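Fold this sequence, please.
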Amino acid sequence: MDVDHLKPAAVLFDLDGTLADSFEGIRHALNAALREEGLSEYDLGWVHAHVGRGAPALVRDAVGGEADDALVRAVGGRFGAHYRASFLDLTPALPGAREVLAYVAWRTGGKVAVVSNKYEDLSRAWLRHVGLEEHVAVVVGPDTYGVRKPDPGAVLPVLRGFGVAAGDALVVGDMDVDVATGLEVGAPVVGVQADPAAARGLLAAGATAVLPALGALPGWLEDNGAGWRYHSPGIPEGGR
């Protein structure tokens, strides 16, 4: 397999909402923390709209901007404890995740990363739990380099390690923060978003393309990348 002229030469995936169906696990832990502090709980739609910037921002949004720091810390601590205890059982992989990661790792010679605003150890634990760890060379969280997406410092060390220029890489994610991350470093971004309104938002934010499902990525790469060919078996029907 010759990957010398492949473009994108590396692919950097978001985790929550891109590879992992994380929202119910987050909702469960957040509401348990809020309930224990006597605060109002939130539905799944609210969680969908507020994730992506990391746990501290999510907790601050849930508690409210006027809440004192002690309450925010208390809810954050409870949320973290509940989440660590339950998230593996409540976070399935999204359809096609295994096949897509295996395909991309095969074609890039292993230059695949997960760059998330979830802590690195949690991302690694989830990848291991669902059997995806072997397809991911690098895992980055906000604790890895001390910054969160969209700060370019979350991505540039990964690209340097891969020996790939930003313009020759691809960022894949489901939220505006993923688009902003790619734009900050000069990498194209493909969104994965089934909701039409959210998909339009990603395009407006600067995504190169938005796909309705993760399983559509291999076909998009073959049609739009340079050197992408030999579509692997096992990609879900309708993914192209």
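The first helix runs from residue 23 to 36. Strands lie at 10-13, 112-115, 138-140, 169-173, 189-192, 209-211.
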